[in-house]
Each structure stands twice: as structure tokens, then as C-alpha cells.
Amino acid sequence: MFVSRSQVVLHADVDAFFASVEQRDDPSLRGRPVIVGGGVVMAASYEARRFGVRSGMGGSRARRLCPQAVVVASRFGAYVEASRAVFAVFERTAPVVEAVSIEEAFLEIGALARTNGAAHAIGQRLRDEVRDEVGLPITVGVGRTKIVAKMASRAAKPDGLLVITPAQERAFLHPLAVEDLWGVGPATAKKLHARDLRTVGQVAQLGEAALKQILGKAAGRHVHALTNAIELRPVQPNRPPRSFGAQRSLGRARGAPLSPDELDDALARLADRVATRMAKAGYAGRTVVLRLRFGDYSRATRSHTLPDHTIAPEPILAAACALAAAARPAIERQGLTLVGLTVINLVDLSGGTQLELTGVQPPGRC
Questions:
Q1: Is residue 156 part of a domain?
Q2: What ranges make up the beta strands (E) of the chain?
Q3: Active site residues
Q4: pLDDT tens digit sequence for 117-163
Q5: Is the same domain home to 266 and 153?
Q6: Which residues are annotated as a binding site for Mg(2+)?
């Protein structure tokens, strides 16, 4: 039973957020596979996910997997406004809200949830209010810790609600594959698999000291906490990020030439990725930073500040292309092995910053 002295966490996550906003605003898209973004998939509706389409996938591959999908351009302005409306429901539901992204948050409701039934009722009321007021489906997981609440919402998707009590934690978590646990990445999972540790339950049986020997001190402590549902960091208001970035290793031999088309393609994908991350986190940026690593392992950094803050990929890409053009002589002379794109000078869109964001199209090329 949940009691008022204990932490009780909701993890609330709008289902296929960008795609759900498009289906909400265009009734002809409802029930159909929808892909948001052309060059790189920013979001896919659950109808498209059934065919294997996933966020971050190249657009051409997504269309091969699901040729019947409707591909729509991103509309960041609509997503920001929908996010503000969703978070208004979050803020009045719980005294402490920790945003994870533009459509996802942890809510601490311990003082309100004295019983399992009360926790379920709060989660259901939140779902009802988001659907009624914002018109979007949302899944809620409830648990004693953030990891349990997160995994509960994953299990309840799409458009569901699942409450995991402390007595149910082991039965819920232990059968899961270690790579499915939120916070366990591919490298960590590979090390655990090498020791024939494949389920959360198997890992949970090891002591923290043994995990530190296998994974290192920090990772061992982290995985021990995750698999035993130990809360390392309770729900708390967010610290604002300083930047959003992405990079691409070009995998070239030292000094190998790079064609303009190849660099243009790399920059377009990075601009798309960075813009998507900023939009999901609810931030806009103004200064674009291009990082280059040449064939001789020397590095260069160039930056450009835009006239206005943006979360659209086009101005980010335009600035990156201009910076890359200025560095073209060095690229041709020394070759290029890595290109990175970062946006800094951020503003929080939840504070009411107004941007010209309608009619955003895929970023295209330089």
C-alpha cells in the first residue's frame, strides 16, 4: 500500500506525441500510419510502428517498411502549444513535476496517494484531463520510484495506466531483459550478457560490489540501484540544459577526401536530429556551433548566432552550411573524420517565448 510518507511517482508520456498532434489536427489521418519528418523520422504513429518504423530512422527506410504511410512535415509551433497545455495539467495534478521531454514528465504525488486506489484515481484523472482538454492520448505508470513508474508506463502503452505497488516490484521487474531496463545502454548490456546475465532478476541477485567489478564503480552502483528499484535521485524540478547537439563519425581513413554532397547530407541529418531534440525538450536556441575533426586529428570549431531563437531545422542547417563552406579549403586539404553540430544560447519555451514556427518543412540540403 502507498502511504503519505512514501514517494509515489507518476510517469506520464503522451503517446507518439508529434504524430498524435498531427492526427488530432487532421481527422483524415486518424487510424492511419503517419510519419512526421521526411529526411529523418521525428515521430511515427503506432499504426506505422507496427511495420517497424521508429524515431531516428532514415526517411527512405521508413517508407520502404511502410509504403502506405502518410508523411507529413513537422509543425513545431503546434507541438509547443500542445506541450504547454499538457504540462498545465501536470502542474495542477502534482506539487513536483520533473520534465523529461516536451511530452513526458515524472510527477511526485506521495502526499496525495494514501492508497493504491488513490494513486490509480489520480493517474486516471490526469489521463482524462489530457484527453478532454488537449485531445491527446497519454499513458501513465505509477510506482514507488522513477524507474518503476517509467517501466510501468512502457508496459501500459499505448493509452494505458498501470500501477505497480512495492509488493509487486520484483514480479514486475525481474523477468525483464536487462537491455529493456530504462537506463541500461547497449554497452552495459553487452558486459552483462558476457557474464550470462540476461534478466533484471539475475542482475538484482548480485551485490553492488560484484556489479562494480563488472561495470565499474559508477555504472555498477547505477545498475544495482535500477535492478533493485532503489531511488538514487527523487523527482525534482529540472536544471535547464546548456546545449543540444549531435555528431557523426565519417569513418574515413586519415586524409580521405569528402565530397560536398556527403558533407551536405551529414549536416542535414544532424540539423534534423538537433532540432528534434530541442523540440522534445521544449527549448529553442540561437547560436549554432559546428565542430570538425580533420584527417590529421586536428580540430576546428566555428559558430554563428541567428537573429532569433528557433527550434526549426532550416535555420540551423543554413548556419551550419555557411560555417562548413568557410571551412571547405581545410576540409579538402586535410580530409574530415567527424562533424558535430550543437545549438546553444537557449530559451525555455514553457516560459512563453513566442517563435515563428508554423509551416516548418524538412531541412533539405545545403
A1: yes
A2: 9-14, 34-36, 43-44, 70-72, 96-101, 104-108, 138-143, 161-163, 244-249, 283-294, 299-310, 336-348
A3: 104
A4: 889 999 999 999 999 999 999 999 999 999 999 999 999 999 999 99
A5: no
A6: 13
